[in-house]
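--- STAGE predict ---
source: upstream dedup step, 1 unique chain passed
mode: sequence only
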Amino acid sequence: SSGINAEWSLRPGNGAALQNATPTIKQASSERETSSKDWDDEICDEVDAREIFDLIRTVKDPEHPHSLEELNVVQEHLITCNDTENYIDIKFTPTIPHCSMATLIGLSLRVKLLHSVSNRFKVDVRVTPGSHQSEEAINKQLGDKERVAAALENPQLLNMVNQCIWSTG
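--- STAGE serialize ---
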């Protein structure tokens, strides 16, 4: 329905100015070093926060040509992962407290994990407490499976999410 689609913030169009034209950029961390044990399917290791961070760090911001890691939107210490209880919690921090892209960023993180981790995990994606003026509404939207599914039926929105999660440049 059009009400569902209107809830999700879309990219500014028609020459709209960027909300945060000069975001602070940080150096991306180096890739985790791997060994032969990492590729050995006989070894069962627990999923940890660093592994989840590695999956989401390259997700692109919808407004800027930078990764969420470079914009400090996602940080490893804001990820909780409990392999035994099949639970992943990600908090993300928008670059400004009134960021209209926050819900789209959260949706992109959720979709990236839906494609990347076992469905045994319950995944929560939330705004870092105190970092956005609409924190409660955004978290409610991102936590509602039906609203997320309906949003992903919108071809324009799905295209934007795919650009964020699959873009490499």
